[in-house]
């Protein structure tokens, strides 16, 4: 099988183990598994009883067998009716056995591959292959069968990176063989690769590798992909015998090469006002180069929330939402992990500003603004209200109204009774302080007093007005006396003979 890259497994473990929330409800749906009960390189003659097991949560949609001789399919059939549920299970997955008799009697001698493929209801597939050798009606010593090679990890070798390893099986009827592999992005070969087998493709083969059988009865080859660009390739495999004079048809597997790190990108505001809305941050521009983002695993971590860090992860979880009603300074990081374990992280800093409340004051049902002066009719008490004060919807119900008389806190509440002051010799102040659950506040202060008393803000103004009228009246009388005096002096001077004579000049 394709060997896991242990150095990045911790990243994938952190992604899922640290997750406190997974986007949406997900149902576990693992790919099916098909296992054949025979050794690779089995010699078959006449009827051959193929048997094995199928493992999954439910029965497959289809499960079929094929016999490949070279690049041709020489026989095929269905296995769905032969499935028998076994009285054992592995967790939530059941096990079915199957068996079918394959008739090789009339077949020509071949180095054949039996291919069993199962497809479940989610269109997930699994292929299991078995190399068999058939001599026909002749003896083993007469027939020179060609070698054969298969990928034992055809189901999980979707992506290769760096110098990767992959398990294969290659041999002829006499034993182990040498192996060659090749990578190509040739479009013609890619089309033929869909048929699994290609005869004599023109590619640059690697140097022959001596097959070494491991404990799993397969062989491991090392594939250096560092000189290849990211993209889709055809991985070819063939077996060699007789000093490389004879080669098998080529097994072909479509693989991707991924040697580039993904890019994590967060789009969103850096400064927001507190509101009841949901705030969304977008990571959909994150990408794994030519591979896009569909297979990326997203790990979101929010720091700064009063409830502690929030961690959310999932495949293609390209957005993250928070409650916009919780002010503060936040750090949101996004780590994306691609199929081969490469990661990239970005961090987005943002703040949510608390909105202060707006105070509203009513006395006796009358709305008042800051700095107002009011005269109250003589009464033991008056209704005061702050019901019209408002804030953002998330803070509205938590507003606290505190009432101050002459700068001293006296009571709290949406509506209260203002008691008549004991001291009516001067005006008094009433202050409303409205505070939200984040400590932000707004206030209104008004001056008040009782009508007809010195406490009435208009009382002093009335006294000043009366004094002014008296002074004005006195000035008018004085001015009238002055006018009369001057008039009398003028009349006296005009009509008395005490005026100086006019001198006259005599003529010589």
Describe it:
The chain has 508 residues and is mainly beta. It folds into 4 domains: 1-22 and 30-145, Immunoglobulin-like (Sandwich), CATH 2.60.40; 156-259, Immunoglobulins (Immunoglobulin-like); 271-347, Immunoglobulin-like (Sandwich); 361-457, Immunoglobulins (Immunoglobulin-like), CATH 2.60.40.10. Helix content is 11%, strand content 44%. It contains 4 helices and 37 strands. The strands form 8 sheets. Strands 12, 15, 16, 17, 19, 20 and 21 form a 7-stranded mixed β-sheet that branches. Strand 33 and strand 34 form a beta hairpin. Residues 1-25 have low confidence and may be disordered.
Q: How many domain units?
A: 4
According to CATH, the homologous superfamily of the largest domain is: Immunoglobulins
What's the CATH class label of the largest domain?
Answer: Mainly Beta
Main β sheet profile: 7 strands, mixed
The CATH topology of the largest domain is Immunoglobulin-like
Low-confidence parts lasting 5 or more residues at pLDDT below 50?
A: 1-25
Beta-strand fraction estimate? 35-45%
Mean pLDDT: 85
Helical residue percent band: 10-25%
- Computed structural class: mainly beta
CATH architecture of the largest domain: Sandwich
Radius of gyration: 49 Å
Number of helices: 4
The count of DSSP E runs of length 2 or more, i.e. the number of strands, is 37
Estimate the global geometry from the Cα principal axes.
rod-shaped
Q: Separation of termini?
A: 161 Å
Ordered list of secondary-structure elements with their pairings:
Elements: H1 9-17, E1 21-22, E2 33-36, E3 42-44, E4 47-56, E5 62-69, E6 72-78, E7 84-90, E8 93-103, E9 110-119, E10 125-134, E11 148-151, E12 159-160, E13 163-172, E14 175-176, E15 178-184, H2 187-193, E16 197-198, E17 209-210, E18 219-224, E19 231-241, E20 246-247, E21 250-257, E22 271-273, E23 278-282, E24 297-303, E25 310-315, E26 319-323, E27 328-337, E28 343-353, E29 361-363, E30 366-368, E31 373-376, E32 381-385, H3 393-396, E33 400-405, E34 408-412, E35 415-419, E36 428-435, E37 441-450, H4 459-495
